[in-house]
């Protein structure tokens, strides 16, 4: 785990996995004295391809952006409670696919990217691909994938839940709930290896 972390970027979508990731990211930010940057990504229904064919009016796009901002605020309140006021936070609402948005927000070598496991269902992963897989492949900083604990529930509109304290540094996280990947080395992608041939007979 790097010791010179200056910013902790965490993907938020209101799912149980993302709330667990948000709590863990808050603990990481407090441990390192870093800025906590919760990020929520949104797109028009049907994605940007559908919007390019029939663009939504600006007021409708503004409504979708406000809805994403409200969802991010509710998730922060649900996961962090009053502890959110004691953290240096810079929330971001980004119109983009979640994977590329998180990689772009966590572009520094001194960043840490935290994600929740299993944030989307199989249909979303089939259409949009796995967000965690995209980030693990393209991120230039260390990536933490946090699995939800037993009893974690997704954030719901209008729901009130007792706040939980931020997670402690990763040394205290139960085994099996935290996966750690180091940063990818910078530089061009290595060439694909040639297929192996069987022994000659």
Automatic annotation (TrEMBL):
**What SUPFAM superfamilies does the record tag this protein with?**
Adenine nucleotide alpha hydrolases-like (SSF52402)
Which residue stretches does the UniProt record annotate as biased composition, category Basic and acidic residues? 149-159
Please list the residue ranges annotated as the UspA domain.
Answer: 6-147
Q: Which Gene3D superfamilies match?
A: HUPs
Q: What spans are recorded as compositionally biased (Pro residues)?
A: 162-172
According to the lineage, what is the superkingdom? Bacteria
Q: Name one Pfam family in it.
A: Usp
Extract the ranges annotated as region (Disordered): 147-201
The record's similarity note reads: Belongs to the universal stress protein A family.
Question: PANTHER family from the xrefs?
Answer: ADENINE NUCLEOTIDE ALPHA HYDROLASES-LIKE SUPERFAMILY PROTEIN, USPA DOMAIN-CONTAINING PROTEIN
Q: What is this protein called?
A: Universal stress protein
């Amino acid at each position: 785990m790097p010791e010179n972390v200056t910013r902790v970027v965490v993907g938020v979508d209101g799912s149980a996995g993302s709330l667990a990731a948000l709590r863990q990211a808050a603990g990481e930010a407090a441990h390192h004295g870093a800025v906590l940057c919760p990020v929520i990504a949104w797109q028009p229904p049907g994605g940007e391809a559908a919007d390019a064919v029939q663009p939504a009016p600006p007021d409708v796009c503004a409504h979708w952006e406000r809805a994403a901002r409200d969802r991010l605020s509710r998730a922060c309140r649900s996961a962090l409670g009053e502890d959110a006021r004691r953290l240096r936070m810079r929330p971001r609402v980004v119109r983009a696919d979640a994977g590329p948005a998180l990689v772009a927000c966590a572009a520094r070598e001194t960043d840490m990217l935290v994600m929740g496991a299993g944030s989307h269902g199989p249909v979303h992963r089939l259409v949009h691909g796995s967000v965690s897989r995209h980030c693990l492949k393209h991120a230039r900083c260390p990536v933490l994938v946090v699995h939800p604990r037993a009893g974690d529930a997704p954030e719901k509109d209008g729901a009130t839940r007792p706040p939980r304290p931020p997670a402690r540094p990763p040394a205290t996280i139960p085994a099996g709930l935290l996966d750690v990947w180091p940063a990818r080395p910078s530089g061009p992608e290595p060439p694909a290896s040639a297929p192996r041939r069987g022994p000659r007979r």
